[in-house]
Structures are given as C-alpha cells and as structure tokens.
Amino acid sequence: MENEIFEPKNELEKKLLAAWEGEMDSEVFMRELLVSEVFMPIENDEVMPGVQRSAIAKPLMLESDDGTKIVAVFSSPDRAKSLLRDYPRYDGGLLTEFKWILEKVGVGHGIALNPGCEVGFDMEPEMLRQL
Questions:
Q1: Of the chain's two ends, which shows fewer C-beta atoms within 10 Å, N or C?
Q2: Distance between CA atoms of residues 74 and 113, nearest Å
C-alpha cells in the first residue's frame, strides 16, 4: 500500500482523510471514530485454521519502540491485507465498533488505526484512558 494514493472506501475513511489533511479537528474525528465500525484482525486457531474456537479473541498486537503493546485495527478489511501478509495466522477478524474495542482492550495498550498504511492514526495508552 505504500506510495499508493489513499482513496477512501467508506465514511470512516473519508473522515480519517479529512482529519489527516487538517480539514477536520482531531477531537471531532475521535468522537466519530468511537461510533464507527473498524476491522480488528484476530489470530486463527492452530488446530483448526480459519476457525476461532476460543471465546477470547487474540487481536494482532504490535510493539512500539518503547515496548508498548499496540492493538492493530483498520478502517476496512482491505486496508489490513498488506500488513497481514507478514502475519499469516491473522487471516480472520472482527468488524465491530471502535468503542467496543476500547472497552475490551483494557488499560496500558495503544491502538494503531491502519498501521502500515499511508493514512493512519496512532493512539497512545494515555490518550485511550482519556477516551
């Protein structure tokens, strides 16, 4: 996806691009994000690939330079494809409201919206606590 022009594919991506380009206030974007649907890659089962047998979904966790765990979420499943080539066990996922992910992730983690994409947004653990 690098060096590609970011063409919004849904309402969230239109808002993300507007915030990215400074046409939408970041606080307004965050309020919109809270009620928007995002894609969260989850790990497939080792025994039954393509099936999630556990009641506890294991999201794709990245790590920042300072060691902070970061949950990867995407504005659409298509945005995840490029990064997920490096994580073959994460070929499934959940489409859910961003607010639900915040509730389930817990404190101490960050969230990256569209990691690996040109247009994305990183949220530090402190920022998430304030939400």
A1: C
A2: 5
**3-class DSSP assignment, residue 44:** coil
Cα-Cα-Cα-Cα torsion 66, 59, 122, 2, nearest 10 degrees, comes to 100
- Cα gap 23→72, rounded to integer Å: 25
The dihedral sign for the CA sequence 76, 78, 81, 87: positive
Please determine, looking at this structure, whether the domain spanning 37-130 carries the CATH number 3.40.640.10. Answer: no
List pLDDT tens digits, range 65-119.
Answer: 889 999 999 999 999 999 999 999 998 899 999 999 988 877 788 999 999 999 9
Question: What are the residue boundaries of the structural domains of the chain, listed by start?
Answer: 37-130
